[in-house]
Amino acid sequence: MNLTEEVEQALETIRPYLKADGGDVSVEEITAEGTVKLKLLGNCGSCPMSFMTMKSGIEQAIMKAVPQITSVVAVNMAEQE
Fold first, then answer.
1. N or C: which end of the chain has fewer CB within 10 A?
2. Residue 54: how many CA atoms within 13 Å on its side-chain side?
3. What PANTHER family has UniProt attached to this entry (predicted)?
């Protein structure tokens, strides 16, 4: 299993919760340094709680399941500020 597949597998553990609120997430890039760049989709992209969702849910799920990952960022969160 490659790194992208491992990250996707980790996301599957949290994806049902995101979809229940009308949102989702997609992997845009995994850098050589181990940073996962995600795009928050649907309601997650505009939700005021998206930062908390990223830190307490998505980031923890990925970093726990895939130790090679050093950070997780949302590429579209800055657009919401």
1. C
2. 24
3. IRON-SULFUR CLUSTER SCAFFOLD PROTEIN NFU-RELATED, NIFU-LIKE PROTEIN 3, CHLOROPLASTIC
**Domain at 42, CATH number:** 3.30.300.130
User: How far apart are alpha carbons 22 and 44 in whole angstroms?
Assistant: 7
Considering only CA atoms, which of 20, 64, 18 is closest in space to residue 40? 18
What range does the domain containing 9 cover?
3-80
| CA distance linking residue 44 with residue 68, whole number of Å | 25
The identity of residue 48, as a single letter, is P
Q: Is the pTM of the predicted complex or chain greater than 0.85?
A: no
* Residue 72 and residue 48 in contact, taking contact as beta carbons nearer than 8 Å: no
Tell me the per-residue pLDDT of 24-35, one tens digit each, with 9 for 90 and over.
999 999 999 999
* Site of tokens 């940073």: 35
